[in-house]
Amino acid sequence: MSARVRFAAPILIFAGLLALMQWLGGGRLTTLPLLTIGVSLLCVALASSLRWSGLIFRVRPGSSPYTALLFALFVRHFVLALGTEARRVLIARRLSVPRTWGRGAVRSLVFAVAALLVRSAVRAERFYAAQSLRGLGE
Amino acid sequence: MTPVLEVEQLTFGFHSKRPVLSDISFRVEEGECVGILGANGAGKSTLLWCLLGLYRASGVIRLFGAPATAAVRRRVGVVFQNPEDQLFMPAVLEDVALALINCGVPGASARQQAAAALERVGLAGAAERPASQLSLGERKRAAIAAALVGSPDLLLLDEPTAELDGRSVRELTGVLRRLPAARLIASHHLEFLGSVCTRILLLSEGHVTAEGATAEILSDEALLERAGLV
Predict the structure, then answer these.
(1) CB of B52 within 8 Å of any CB in chain A?
(2) Which residue is closest to B88 within chain A, CA to CA?
(3) How far is CA B199 from CA A105, B111, B230, in A?
(4) Which chain A residues are within 8 Å of B52, Cβ to Cβ?
(5) B138 and B169 belong to one structural domain
């Protein structure tokens, strides 16, 4: 599987799940799954075409662009951190369970996802503490 | 002379039954380097989080002779155990400059001060690289530069040598020894604390079980063994 397809797979799965839930719930499909894919692609295109470096020196602190930039940088940081943690959790699962598909696989996957949530919460707490001490919450 | 940090009867617990920290009292004088030594789970990091106001503890915490309010805490620099909690900007220079920019320091001046802070920790050549491309030792030094850039009067460091190799520990030791600010370092690394600190507080199960000159504490094998450090 090429890197691009692998990269897009979680978004496509998420959009597919949204469509499935709509179909199971009411039977009528909306444009929400397509919008999800569209917004994701737009965000990826923006994030990869923007020159992040040096931007912080060009915006006025306290202004709306400054807040938006910091928000985007926080999100970027969390996406990268979440990606790293998810990779670690999935590698640990693959090494510790006899098989990643079939009987017992869902249970181990649930534990892996739960571990990922806990790790993310801990990292978010530390990140918030570190940034608030730098005065970013004021 | 007014102490930089004064703690009296600090007590803290996540659950009321068993406090994590009990009746902690100590002070740090200007320019002094004090180590908080303790085994894993002794309460070192929790104590630092209490001092920073991230956990609400009972007792008295005075910084620079005044109650530890948010305004006074701006004179304190912090280096967390994991530098990834502090560094998130596209370039290390921006990470170091961010606190200044946020305080309204103009971009050019912030850039200059950040470059000087990076130079002090030996990272001048890495200014334009993202933190993710640096080694852990370099990232720790970048976090120290970010804490130093506001010229803090007190620097708190949580396990600064965690996961570092021998060379990185030596480099970090050199950086910390040169700093003029008062330093409070939480660690279980005996050799490192021995080469950086002048005084040590030994923390065991949430209590200060010993306090004294570094050489005196580190030469007491029985004391260290009781604290689970050797």
Answers:
(1) yes
(2) A77
(3) 53, 36, 19
(4) 129, 133
(5) no
What range defines the domain where residue B63 resides?
A: 1-75+152-230
Give the 3-state secondary structure percentages of chain B, helix then strand then coil, rounded to 5: 40, 25, 35
B134 within 8 A of B160, measured Cβ to Cβ: no
| Residue B13 belongs to some domain of the structure | yes
Contact list in A for residue B73 (CB cut-off 8 A) is 133
Residue B19, in any domain of the structure: yes
Interface A–B counts its CB contacts (< 8 A) at: 66
Amino acid (1-letter code) at residue A22: Q
**B143 and B167: one domain?**
no
Put simply, the chain A residues between 34 and 73 with a CB less than 8 A from any chain B CB are: 52-58, 61-62, 73
- Same-domain status, B100 and B111: yes
Distance of alpha carbon B227 from alpha carbon B205, whole angstroms: 8
pLDDT digits (tens, 9 = 90+) for B157-167: 999 998 889 98
B158 & B220 share domain = yes
Q: Which among B102, B131, B151 is the end of a domain? A: B151
Q: Chain B residue with minimal CA distance to A58?
A: B107
Residues B140 and B178 reside in one and the same domain? no
Cβ-Cβ contacts under 8 Å, A80 against chain B: 132
- pLDDT, tens digit, for every residue of A97-135? 877 777 778 888 888 999 999 988 888 888 888 888 887
Residue B204 lies in a domain: yes
The Cα B211–Cα B26 span in angstroms is 9
Least CB–CB distance from B91: residue in A53, A61, A135: A53
Top-confidence residue, B15 or B180: B180
Among B132, B151, B170, identify where a domain stops. Answer: B151
Q: What is the pTM of this model?
A: 0.84
Do the domain assignments include residue B80? no
Contact (CB, 8 A) for B158 and B48 = yes
Contact: B111, A57; criterion CB under 8 Å:
yes
Q: Are the C-beta atoms of residues A62 and A97 closer than 8 Å to each other?
A: no
B147 and B170 share one domain: no
Mutate which of A49, A50, A57 to test chain B, going by most B C-beta atoms within 10 A?
A57
Is ipTM over 0.85? no
